[in-house]
Amino acid sequence: MDGWLVAAALLSALLHASWNAAVKADADPPRAMAAQMYASGLIALAALPLVGLPHWRALPWMAVSVSFSLGSVALLLRAYRHAGFGIAYPVTRGASVMLVVPLAAALAAEWPQPLGLAGVALVAAAVLALALRGNGAVSRAGLGWALAAAAFTAAYVVCDARGVRAAGSPLAYGCLLSVVNALVWGWTQRGARGSGSPLQALRAVGAKAWAMAGAAVVSYVLILWVWSRAPIALGSALRDTSALWAALIAVVWLKEPLDRVTLGAVALATGGAVLIRLA
What are 240-251's pLDDT values in tens digits? Predict the structure, then answer.
């Protein structure tokens, strides 16, 4: 991969881990997640007149992506209730690497090479290490929700990669999808207990919502640009080094413990992502 693509994917990973950490650190993570999505939608809506609309051939991929993307958000929020951010997030991002490879092979004819399969094995070992640690740091429920979020994440990754290649413009695809995500999320949350209106969520979270949204939009457009020019599994693997950033953020910012097993699991997941990238 070109050096600029590698740098873009790594920056996307850092931004993605950062806004997820901000959501987890909020007193009300579901409300913070919603506020971030609404703010992202408003930012993208303002940009649409400048970037235009994607080609119509991208729309079916976008529709499927929205379903899986919002499903992954809901599942990840469930995982946060049962496991620390430093575990739930790396498991979700690391396990999604495993699943992107066969999905990319099936839907984009991008077949993994032996080095890529070795990377998948390392990621699988990382997830197994977290599952078997047995010290109460992660419950079965937490691990289960995180793995479910990983499956939905892998699905929307492949859909977005196919969609942005058909769209003709990563900016146009990313902005329209951000608007649609915000609209659909608001519609699905109507009447939910404690959800409130989009305006109430934005007011409650305040300036942090816009900071998270800025990081989320830039992270998303960067990885779309990478997927438009590089194999899906390679770009996804590089972005999922966000698991390593997440562990560091959890220790430094959220003050969560990071024992040897967790650190080793994150290292394995990161090593697996690197091998997939090299493949």
Answer: 777 777 777 777
Query: Is the Cβ–Cβ distance between 123 and 267 less than 8 Å?
Result: no
Backbone angles phi, psi at 28, to 5 degrees: -135, 85
Give the residue carrying structure tokens 């929307």.
Answer: 156
In this structure, are residues 127 and 147 in contact, taking their beta carbons and an 8 Å threshold?
A: yes
d(C-alpha 112, C-alpha 120), whole Å: 10
* Long-range CB contacts for residues 187-190, cutoff 8 Å, separation at least 24: 188/70, 189/34
Determine the Cα–Cα distance for residues 243 and 90; give it in Å rounded to an integer.
Answer: 4
Nearest to 239 by CA among 252, 221, 257, 256: 221
Q: How many CA atoms lie within 13 A of 219 on its CB side?
A: 22
Domain boundaries, the chain: 3-278
Q: Taking residues 115-143, report their average pLDDT.
A: 71
